[in-house]
């Protein structure tokens, strides 16, 4: 049986640009980096208050990543969505959708990561 989720891999076109986005826009931290046996450059990102990591992979000579709309997204809880949006705007990032109040009373919004991966932000009711 599976014990727990360890990480999710996302392939990217520009590892450094994507790492910078997750560090600046979301406050994630690189826990480790290495090169895989296939030559892929890997960066693992720690997520606050979670054991799971995000693995970013830049594979040399691979076709360019082009994420289809609404294909996959990561979701993060934020305490105050309005304050978060104001904070990231000072760093040059903007929400791509929202904020929107849901039927449960939570407020959600999205920000687009490089390659078009969506990041959902949730302020719980």
Explain the overall architecture.
- By secondary structure, the protein is an alpha/beta fold.
- It has one domain (7-123): 2,3-Dihydroxybiphenyl 1,2-Dioxygenase, domain 1, CATH 3.10.180.
- The protein contains two helices and eight strands.
- The N and C termini lie far apart (34 Å).
Q: Bin the helical content.
A: 10-25%
The CATH superfamily is known as 2,3-Dihydroxybiphenyl 1,2-Dioxygenase, domain 1
Give the assembly state of these chains: single chain
Strand content: 35-45%
Q: pLDDT below 50 for ≥5 consecutive residues: which ranges?
A: none
> Remind me, CATH topology?
2,3-Dihydroxybiphenyl 1,2-Dioxygenase, domain 1
Rg measurement, Å: 15 Å
Number of strands: 8
Which properties best describe this structure?
125 residues, alpha/beta, 2,3-Dihydroxybiphenyl 1,2-Dioxygenase, domain 1, four-stranded mixed β-sheet, 8 strands, 18% helix, 37% strand
Topology summary:
Elements: E1 7-11, H1 15-26, E2 29-35, E3 41-46, E4 53-58, E5 73-77, H2 81-90, E6 97-101, E7 107-112, E8 118-123
Explain briefly what this protein structure is.
It is globular, with a radius of gyration of 15 Å.
């Amino acid at each position: 049986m599976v014990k727990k989720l360890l990480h999710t891999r996302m392939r990217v076109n520009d590892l450094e640009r994507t790492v910078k986005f997750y560090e600046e826009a979301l406050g994630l931290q690189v826990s480790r980096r290495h090169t895989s046996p296939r030559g892929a450059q890997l960066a693992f990102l720690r997520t606050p208050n979670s054991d799971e990591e995000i693995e970013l992979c830049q594979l040399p000579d691979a076709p360019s990543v082009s994420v289809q709309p609404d294909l996959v997204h990561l979701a993060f809880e934020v305490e105050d969505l309005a304050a978060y949006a104001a904070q990231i705007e000072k760093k040059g990032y903007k929400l791509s959708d929202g904020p929107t109040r849901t039927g449960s009373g939570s407020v959600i919004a999205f920000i687009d990561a490089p390659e078009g991966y969506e990041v959902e932000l949730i302020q719980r009711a």
